[in-house]
Amino acid sequence: MTTNKNQLITEYLDQWTRDYLRDKNQATNEELLYFIEFMQLRDKKTHSIANFNSSNPSIVIDDFLYHGDIWHAGNFKLLKDLGIQHILNVSDTSLKEEITTNFNVLWVSIGDHPRVNISQHFEKTNDFLFSCKVKNEKVLVHCEMGISRSSSIVLAYLMK
Questions:
Q1: Same structural domain for residues 100 and 35?
Q2: Are the C-beta atoms of residues 153 and 118 closer than 8 Å to each other?
Q3: Whole domain around residue 32: which residue ranges?
Q4: Which of 38, 80, 111, 146 has a CA between 20 and 30 Å from the CA of residue 10?
Q5: What is the DSSP annotation of 100-135?
Q6: Which residue out of 32, 78, 139, 143 is catalytically annotated?
Q7: Are residues 21 and 63 in the same domain?
Q8: Can 143 be counted among the known catalytic residues?
Q9: Does pTM top 0.70 for this prediction?
């Protein structure tokens, strides 16, 4: 049984991550297995959301500001069809290279935790959105599920 656990840890986590978690955080094998299980559930959730959500992002301001989720931000065809030129990613997940090389992406990595101080990013995100508006170019603001982090950023912009 221990061999299977060690094998799973070795196969799922790269050497740097294993060493970091063990050395810096004194993580036990059991904790590493919980971490792996969490990451697998997160991957499964993200995959199921991508397969579920086939709608368009919400239009907040016509011909300018769109609000969506990770699926919208990763759908190259959808972004091109809508004429999106800029993406404001406020999730803690990076976008595919196909997206980052074809769109102007500002990634402000914000964790999805209740105690995160999202307001510290408002000036940067407001400036980015304002620059898109001045150029009359469309922008998609998104986080993982398009519920809290991206909504907060959009509301901060609208209030400003």
A1: no
A2: yes
A3: 2-52
A4: 111
A5: HHHSEEEE------TT--GGGGHHHHHHHHHHHHHT
A6: 143
A7: no
A8: yes
A9: no
